[in-house]
Amino acid sequence: MEAIRLFKSLNHDQRNTFVACFLGWGLDALDFFLLTFVLVPISHEFGRSIPDVAFAITLTLMARPLGALIFGLLGDKFGRRVPLMIDIVFYSVMELLTAFAPNFTVFLILRLLFGIGMGGEWGLGASLAMESLPTQTRGLFSGILQQGYAVGYLLAALVYWVVFPHFGWRGLFVAGALPALLVIYIRAHVPESPVWQRDRAQRKHSRLRLSTLIKQHGLLFIYAALLMTAFNYMSHGTQDLYPTYLEEQLGFGVNA
Question: What is the pTM of this model?
């Protein structure tokens, strides 16, 4: 009941912003997880082993910190909204180009570039959402926002089930370009972060002083980083290869 009350307390713009950020993160995850369902057919097409193709997942994850840095800086300078739209278009285009990769080297490069876009989405989307919501709602909605990642995995499974039997693995990545349409919704219904607008109006510049950060929040930052490292180690260490395990070791087909 408290969750419902908090949701009803949001105004029209706040609801639109949260929905857009949730979908941005969920569709980002959708594009990432599509690859995890088709490691085997991609390995057959390019004449590579499954571990070779799985290295594309590693490249994507390695590029995420770079994307977070690039788009984080853009978000501080130009606002959250426009860089978020650019980021969504960027990772969607990389997803589409993956469908037309002529060889394995180009395929790996495109997955690396996709990782830059994937890394940029969470920071921009989370900042825009949390800076737009009332303080008392942020605890609940930050948790719901993160679950966009799980929703993206479920959507990837559904898209795989519908698209792959008819259009193969390349068709999956064509379908993965559809998140770019979310930009239309953001452009029409989502305002800029009020916190960023206020800081710009007051001519405040967001400069990160590492010495101040370490002094005030160093231990908390290290703890949070280690905690998320452990979570990602457990999740990506299992979920990314689980569809391949079901297919190769257990012999399950697409419908199963």
Answer: 0.90
Angstrom distance (rounded) from CA 178 to CA 246: 27
For residue range 25-42, list pLDDT tens digits in order: 999 999 999 999 999 999
Distance CA(162)–CA(150), nearest Å, equals: 19
Rounded distance between C-alpha atoms, residue 60 and residue 56, angstroms: 6
Q: How far is Cα 49 from Cα 55, in angstroms, rounded to an integer?
A: 10
Q: Rounded CA gap, 210 and 135, in Å?
A: 26
Q: How many Å separate Cα 21 from the centre of its chain?
A: 10
Is residue 95 within 8 Å of 172, Cβ to Cβ? no
How far apart (Å, rounded) are the C-alpha atoms in residues 240 and 39?
10
Q: Is 255 helix (H, G, I), strand (E, B) or coil?
A: coil
What is the pLDDT of the chain when averaged over all its residues? Answer: 92
